[in-house]
Amino acid sequence: MVHNLVSIEVVIHRVYNDLNVEYADWTGRAIEWCYNALRSMNLYTTLVPCTQTVTITDYRGVLPCDIRILEAIEYNGYRLAPHHQIGKYYRPNTALGVHPTETYEITINQNISTTFKTGEVLVHYKKLPTEYSHLLQIDVPLIPDNEEVIDALKWYCFKMIISRGYKHSVFDYRYANDEWNRLRLKARHSVSRLDSNERELHKLLWTSFIVNQSAWKNANFNEH
Q1: CB contact at 8 A, 164 and 5
Q2: Average pLDDT, the chain
Q3: Where do runs of H (alpha helix) occur along 65-144?
Q4: What is the DSSP string of 35-95?
Q5: What average pLDDT does this structure show over 63-79?
Q6: CA 152 to CA 173: how far, in whole Å?
Q7: What strands lie across the sheet with 5-7, from one edge to the other?
Q8: Pick from 3, 11, 217: which is nearest to 133 by CA?
Q9: Domain edges within the chain
Q10: Is the pLDDT score of 56 beyond 80?
Q11: In what order do the strands lie in the sheet with 98-106?
Q12: What global pTM score does this model have?
């Protein structure tokens, strides 16, 4: 069963160590290749919840850059409603309800504009689970920490390397593709043995490593 996530850097190291690939031009493409392979196996990593404090100065603040889904803007124990939706989201002056007077608006350059001049808000959002890769020198997505999954991704990356013209002294494309097809079934069955709580950690969204900077612009509050 899968309990943890690991960086795709693990897959890159496996390709080097197990298959003795002698050039490095492919490593930057490993993110897209791993995504394609996970999609083929119907295995994904869910978005993870995150909360970050944003300081408001002169009615302005800067939102986190890794927002995938904006869930709420909290101020003094209340959720703020967007300027144009204050009527729709108005609630009585009760704890955790929508603030009766203050609102916000998303502006350009990841800024938030509020109706109060100074203060702090809590930004509740979801993001892709990532980890900084010293090898690639960027944040990279995390994958299921599962031997069958990692091994399948290794062979998928290797077959893609060969498809780009790399000549290996032992393995050819046909062999690499056969290993990928064999191992992806094992990987999928391995993860499918998870219980419902564990499956929740490894599903739904791996749609893109690059964060969609405008995903939160049309997001509404979750009323529950």
Answers
A1: no
A2: 79
A3: 86-89
A4: HHHHHHTT-----EEEEEEEEEBTTEEE--TT-SEEEEEEETTEEEEEGGGHHHH---S-T
A5: 87
A6: 15
A7: 5-7, 138-144, 130-133
A8: 11
A9: 5-45+135-199, 48-127
A10: yes
A11: 48-56, 119-127, 69-75, 78-82, 98-106, 111-114, 60-62
A12: 0.58
Determine the 3-state secondary structure of 89 from DSSP. helix
Min mean pLDDT across 3-17, 117-131, 183-197 is at: 183-197
HSE at residue 162, side-chain half, CA atoms within 13 A, is 20
Token readout for 33 is 């290749």
Residue with tokens 């609102």: 103
> Any idea what DSSP says for residue 83?
G
Residue 171 has φ and ψ, to the nearest 5°, of -105, 145
Q: Which residue has the higher pLDDT, 48 or 34?
A: 34
Question: Residue 118 carries which side chain, given as an amino acid letter?
Answer: T
Dihedral sign, CA of 39, 45, 177, 162? positive
| Side-chain half-sphere exposure of 117, counting CA atoms within 13 A | 1
- Give the burial string for 167-177 (b: 16+ CB within 10 Å, else e): ebeebeeeebb
CA distance 37 to 117: 48
Q: Are 104 and 73 contacting, i.e. CB atoms less than 8 angstroms apart?
A: yes
- The residues, ordered by sequence, that sit 6+ positions from 103 with a Cβ below 8 Å of its Cβ are 80, 81, 82, 83, 86, 114, 115
